[in-house]
Amino acid sequence: MKKLPYDPAEGKNFWSAIRSLPGFPMQETMPIKEMIFESGALFKLTEILKSIGAHQDAPLVVVMDETSMRRAGENLKELALATLRNDGWQATAAWMRPDESGQVHTDMPHIEEVKANLSRGCSVLSIGSGVITDIAKHGCFLYQQETAEVVPFAVFQTAHSVSAFTSNTSATFVGGVKRTLDSRYPDALICDFETLRDAPKEMTAGGVGDMLAVFVSFPDWYLAYRLGMDSTYSELAKNLVGPLDELLIDHAEGIRDGEMESVAMLAKIIALGGLAMSLSHATTPMSGFEHVMSHVLDLQAEIAHFPLAVHGAQVALATLAGTEMYQRFLSDFDPTTLNLDNCYPGMDAMKKKIEESFNTIDPSGKAGAECWADYKQKLEKWHAHRNDFEAVLKDWKSLRAELAKETRSS
What is the largest CA-CA distance in the chain? Predict the structure, then answer.
């Protein structure tokens, strides 16, 4: 079986090893102090919290939602709170309540609710999957920005669902549109194998799906770089996550059956995915146009007050579509047939097109205005880099070979 090129469970040795990778930001030292991947990690909460500077004589805010979770037959959240209180922590639960869709979403009201629970000297533990993690993370971030108080923050990951657990961004609904906001790293990541093994199977499958996005996002990022649209491209993310296709195939049966070795492998892959984005200072390594498809589905559900589907399931299906699109693009695209002028539409035409398209989803026009604000910047940049596009067309054969290395067949 293939092994991870870099194991996040190795602490200081891990951070020391990846610092030598091209593209590693030298100003980063060890942004996540503790990453624990163990059986029985739940019972190390006190040790881990103390290691990141949390104090037992100050409040510990435990951010959770009301989703029922089981660990080895017991109620996970009750067990966690009892463990903390028995160890002498002043643990107070901050419950995030669902909206009319029956779900908790990462939005500013929930983030502000977390922030309102924080006080001088407190620490925070989030117990949940990606949404709760992002809510707690961004609540701590805003509190620190406003008060200059450092909040020790630990993440207890409850499912193999998304790569939010190790990222320094939060995917947040703003004005009805999902935006990726600058946020903060957790100080500690706690992966308890029994908890992850017993999580719903659809969440585990979603985590695999979220990682599969690299077979669209890696070629997307490289193509954007060659077109002059993104100067931040580096090979850091690709080197960090390693041979993802081989790793997932090797462990597919074990992940499906809840074998501890494979539970550990998937937890580490997902942790590396979040770090790949954060250390690259971009979501683009792990999020390409397959995530745009997923975000539009989320937008439609959010506006209609419907429950959101499992993020990674949407990403997996969109990745199947995306990889098929790449196969057809790489086999069928002929640069000699292009009319270059047709590739550069005007601002007014595209503004009208976007507003009309989004009007069918959100007649208020807010979603269309939010999306146009982003698209306008990209369209301006696209016009400004026409020379890069023309150079790519002349070098299509070699570029095609590079893109083919990064994607896979659906």
Answer: 72
